[in-house]
Design a protein that fits this description.
It is a single chain. By secondary structure, this protein is mainly α. It folds into 2 domains: about 45 residues; about 70 residues, Winged helix-like DNA-binding domain superfamily/Winged helix DNA-binding domain (Arc Repressor Mutant, subunit A, Orthogonal Bundle). Strands 1-3-2 form a 3-stranded antiparallel sheet. A hairpin with a 2-residue loop joins strand 2 and strand 3. The longest helix has 23 residues. The radius of gyration is 23 Å and the shape is elongated.
């Protein structure tokens, strides 16, 4: 029986050693992130940054968020043009109104340059999206 106990202890020690290995922890994290993405896709039918803001109900604001995530910093006219491509029409007045609401909500930032306002996704929104994707931010491991 001592021989069997020694073998079991040796197997347990090896398992413990490998389960605490940093590389395997990293691989488990990647797999968990991948499974999270699959679950998002199954639940919502797509992987979109608007998923992290369920409080944003109107479709124009949701599309503005996607446009800014896709293209980066844009002015009101550029955002309106992108909306026209996807929706067929868009009003600068409505786009400005939606942008102001998104700025108030902290999802979008506005940088005023001379006579132009440039809009971009806020750092808060980017961090929230990266967390949903399971991506480490500044060495912060997202654990389940």
């Amino acid at each position: 029986m001592d021989d069997l106990e020694k073998r079991i202890r040796k197997v347990e020690d090896l398992l413990e050693k490998y389960l605490e290995n940093d590389y395997l922890v990293y691989i488990r994290h990647i797999l968990a992130s991948y499974l999270r993405l699959i679950n998002i896709y199954v639940e919502y039918g797509k992987i979109s940054p608007t998923i992290i803001f369920p409080e944003i109900k109107d479709s124009i604001s949701r599309e503005i968020i996607e446009i800014l995530f896709s293209y980066g910093s844009l002015n009101t006219s550029q955002i309106t043009d992108e909306l026209k491509k996807s929706r067929g029409k868009a009003s600068r007045r409505i786009v400005r109104e939606k942008l102001n609401n998104l700025v108030e909500a902290g999802i979008v930032e506005c940088d005023e340059r001379k006579n132009e306002r440039i809009y971009s996704i806020s750092e808060y929104a980017v961090k929230k999206w990266l967390k949903v994707l399971g991506i480490n931010i500044k060495g912060d491991v997202h654990k389940e």
